[in-house]
Amino acid sequence: MGDVSGPVFDSVLDGVGATPLVRLRRIVPDGGAEVWVKTEWTNPGGSVKDRAALAMVLEAEQSGALRPDGVIVEGTSGNTGIGLAMVAAARGYRSIFVIPDRTTTEKVSLLRAYGAEVIKTPGLVPLEDPRHVKKLAATIARDTPGGWLADQYGNAANPDVHERTTGPEIWGQTAGRVTHLVAGIGTGGTITGTGRYLKRVGGVTVIGADPETSRYGGGDGSPYYVEAVGHYLHPLTGEDDWPAVYDTSLPDRIERIADGESLRTVRRLAREEGLLVGGSAGTAVAAALRLAASTGPDAVIVAVLPDSGRIYLSKYFDDGWLTTLGFLDAGTGPLVRDVLGPYEPGLLVADATTTVAELRSTLDRLDDPPSSVTVVQPRRTDATSWSVPDVLGSIRHDGLAGLVAGDRVGTCAGPPPATVGHGEDAVAVRARLSGLAPSDPVLVLVDGRAVTQVERSTLG
Length: 460
Fold this sequence. Notes:
The chain is α/β, with parallel strands linked by helices and 460 residues long. It is 31% helix and 18% strand. It folds into two domains: 11-317, Rossmann fold (3-Layer(aba) Sandwich), CATH 3.40.50; 330-459, CBS-domain, CATH 3.10.580. It contains 13 helices and 17 strands. The longest helix is centred in the middle third of the chain and has 17 residues, at 157-173.
């Protein structure tokens, strides 16, 4: 059998980096390009962010920004925090992390397992709001004795470590054969550092993989369900502030991947390749598969897969969660879409800044106006479907007469409508919505977005 011993480390932190490269075999088109994945979840903290976390702490120690009795503080969607919490535990620091309230319970549990203090804050607020993840983390770091803000969004150690390690690893593991790099864009550190190295040594084509509505790829900035990738923009944010570490000139192009495609790819990777990975990995692989279908057999594509699916079991691998959001069919029938029959996708909405008078005028021009109108965030978009977190409420047509004409509908709307996944079991949905009045509005979801509105009675 030869030498079966593994590496020996003085510290868990010595195990960061040098992650395996694995070839995809079963989900790649026949006769197409080779597709390999960089298994970053095999880092000791479970994600690609271990690299940046360790690099940022070491640099801060060297510069004196982080003192021996210091406190590590960061705003994070989870993975950078987990990496920093691991480093903090191994090097004897306290740590405090501010996380969006939509972060998975698994990530929160991991942070606390490392001894970190976790502070949840609303995830969908304008950048100027003091509760914003980055703003609140900066405030806590400033007000905490010995506090040091890691600032993954602006810390040059983030992309630099990928230029020193991730890029050279991929080049060496492929013996210089890599032709294309595919990576998601979150803070931008991974794609910037890794891509910079591979472009310099081999002229590698760099493809950014981005959620469809993310601002990086030109989306409207509305919420999406894949965590740890992309750029959400609250419509009331004054300036669209992108991370300083992201070199926007580096990607040759950006592939925009819808949530449904990302999550279905994630499930295929688990069931057909034996790789249990997170949603952003699904985004990267979906982009890589598109690329593989359009390139010849001589292409060698490497996709960076940031984290493990183990921290998303309550979401991406939970059939109930996926079904209620319209990502998955219940597997029994009749389904909601069977009951609805053919329908014209489209949703009449009023953004929150619309006045009551303007909405009355719009409805008066319709031959068959709906009984209720969905009120949404004032987002500049031509979308015909709406992300559920952007739905603010609902306002009844017959209630408009009693409202002040100049009031904004966002201030007088009622609660958001109930939602159903288009693939849910219709009988179960009827039972769940039995407390609603027959004319109450219900939004029908496909891949996490509201595509049409019906009255509860339409569902039986």
